[in-house]
Design brief:
Elements: H1 30-40, H2 43-56, H3 63-75, H4 80-93, H5 100-113, H6 117-130, H7 136-149
């Protein structure tokens, strides 16, 4: 019979690769981009950058400082419990690090924010013992926090 079949032939498939370019900052750049975002007021973006960095590089030499900055992203958004955890992590990772005195003062502020003034005052009482050579600007912040907390 010379009639064409009513069933069409099977289609032929061709594999096509679509190039996808995603821009992920290098892991090592995340602390810098996070601090820039923090300064610009993009607290969520900064938080994401700091968390990604700390997840990828938990034992990096600057993880104490980055943990401090992560704490700041929580603190400015009134996430005092997460801020306190980040400040404690900062001090544990770098007890003599550049941000350790700041972290202790901010921990006290976070504790005050959590409604724990007695704990905040204990923290502030130990500040001069732990950081006798803290920079004058950080000592002034500690005095301000003492006044705010009513120690």
């Amino acid at each position: 019979s010379g009639q064409p079949s009513a069933v069409p032939s099977a289609p032929t498939f061709r594999e096509v690769t679509i190039p996808v370019q995603e821009t992920f900052p290098e892991i090592s750049a995340l602390p810098s981009t996070g601090k820039r975002k923090l300064a610009e007021g993009d607290f969520v973006g900064a938080q994401v950058d700091f968390k990604k960095y700390l997840e990828a590089m938990p034992d990096a030499p600057n993880s104490g400082e980055v943990s401090f900055w992560l704490g700041e992203t929580y603190y400015v958004r009134q996430g005092y419990a997460d801020a306190a955890d980040a400040y404690i992590t900062s001090m544990r990772k770098a007890p003599r690090g550049i941000k350790a005195p700041d972290a202790m003062v901010r921990l006290a502020a976070a504790l005050r924010g959590l409604g724990q003034p007695a704990e905040a005052c204990k923290t502030l009482d130990s500040f001069p013992v732990q950081f006798p050579n803290a920079p004058p600007s950080v000592r002034a912040k500690a005095q301000t926090e003492i006044a705010r907390t009513g120690c």
